[in-house]
Amino acid sequence: MMFIHFKTLSLQCKESKEVIDLTQQVSFFHGKIGSGKSSIARLISFSLGGGLEKTSAIQSEAISVILELEVGEYQVLLERNINNDNFINATCLDQEQKAFTVNAPVYNNQGPIWGDQVYNISDLIFHLLKLKVLKIAANKSREDSGLVRLTLRNFMWYCYLDQNKLDSTFFRHEDSSKARNSKEVLKYILQYSTQKLIDLEEKLQESRKQRFTDTSTVERLREFLKQFGFSTLEEIDKIGNDIRNKLFQAKEDRKKQELGYMQETHNSDRLRDSIRSMILDIASLEQSLFDLESRIKQQESLKSELIASKFKLAKNESVATLFQGVEFDNCPDCGTNLKARIHDADHCNLCGTEVGQTHPTLNEQSEVIQTDLDDRVKDLDASIDLHKTALIKAKKELASKQKKRNEFDVQLGQELRQYESIFLSNIRKVDQTVAKLTERLRSLDRLKRMPEEINRLEQNAADLFKAEHQLKQKIREERESLIKGESLIEELEKEFLRILLEVGVPGVTVEDKVHINRKNWEVAIWPKEQEHLKWNFYNAGSGGKKTLFNSCFMLALHVIAAKNDLPLPTFIIIDTPMKNIDKEINLEIFRNFYNLVYELAADVLDKTQFVIVDNNFIPPAAELKLNFFDRYMTADELDNPPLIRYYQGP
Fold this sequence. Notes:
The protein has 650 residues and is of the alpha/beta class. The chain has twelve helices and 16 strands. β4 (62-71) and β5 (74-81) form a beta hairpin.
């Protein structure tokens, strides 16, 4: 069983917070039209991920709704904003008081929001119930269709009968996808489709989808390759060999071009040799120029020193003449008194030199020196003039060689540029051909993997086909073993007939038979077991009879689920089961239906929670000792306020 019990429903409004107590097993809301009775049932459904009919009161006053409930072993709070309602904030507390909160989307999220299997609020509730998310084929008529998830909303079709659709639909047949899902849920509840069978069908569907994907990919690849003649490995190898031969020839052409370039550039070696020889000559001349300039500078410096010596000699001669024969009393250098010195008469009293010795005269010495200096200056002038003449000649020769060298450089550059331009043009063409052929070989190597991938996909598709055959066999075997499912359907047929008789639905007798078609899941009444006279929800006649048909079937399904511990949520919400039925005229049907509901709640459905909304109220018998709560709602009495107590409007 899917144990889900409600505790409180809190509606946050602009001016108040309305709290609805749902802790009792049976909660009955009745009263006048427009008091918000149906909104209670809709808000419960809304908190579990359903839609919400936004009445004037809800639209203008409601802000958010919080549903407190038990889900399996968890205490849960579900909070949903009235206007921004794409997400539900869920807070969960386990028996060990460990809590977690998650903002769960109403519909599938792109990635899991909790663990690796929870994508939305429905998955979260299944997770809390320790149930695996069920998946069925989106379209069983197509083998390559994908899988869709069954949600809590699909199960709630057998737990919540909405007033708006209570007399206009059954099994959601007005929508093909909902009809298919509702039937799959019914099969699952009645074990006509076990978890093992669902897993096998899911694997089969995934295998089919993968096989069709592989087959489609193979067809597209073959069509693509066929356009270029690449449908087989042999064709690709043949084209590859042709390209390799062309590539080899192109590389050989390049080698020839390079060899020809080396040979042609040898023609310029003569010019290069001339330039190298000229460079050596220029270097030698530059060294000679440097040596000449250095020698000229040295000789000019020596000449200047000799001329300076001539001036010094002339100056010394003038001084000697000036002081010749002068007697000194004191030393002209240090000032020592010379008269006090004792010296020989034949010695100079100033320097102590013996006067009697024979020395050449100062004038004689000066003339000799002066003549020698003049001769040396003349020699230097002659040498300098000679070197300068050689320097001028060397400079002219250097300029001539440099000019010639520049002419050779220009000539060599022109020759090389002209030839290199032709060579580069040719080599570029060859390189382009080599690059093009090389890239084609690489492309072929990649294309070569495509036939290999085609073979792999074909083999994979063949393996999948074999696996599908085995899965189909297992599915057949599993379906053949569903003996309990067949017995449960038969039990449901009998229970539905019993409840119809108990309520006193017009046109149903004990001689009739309820038959559920195992293929299309049509629920029909066979009067006196005659199939050709069968009638069902769609030709039941009055709207009141249709509402009873739906309500009684849901009760019967919950009875069978409770007796056999089947996977069905443990709550029933019925919004106006007596819709289109006049109480005064059909009082007996009123009493029969509600007495049956109370008896079932006190007996076999004692673990099932009831939330009933109706205009009129029939209380349970006192002896049932039922955990029961009722609330009368009207907009006219302060003691019995509407859902939003302060609201006055349509």
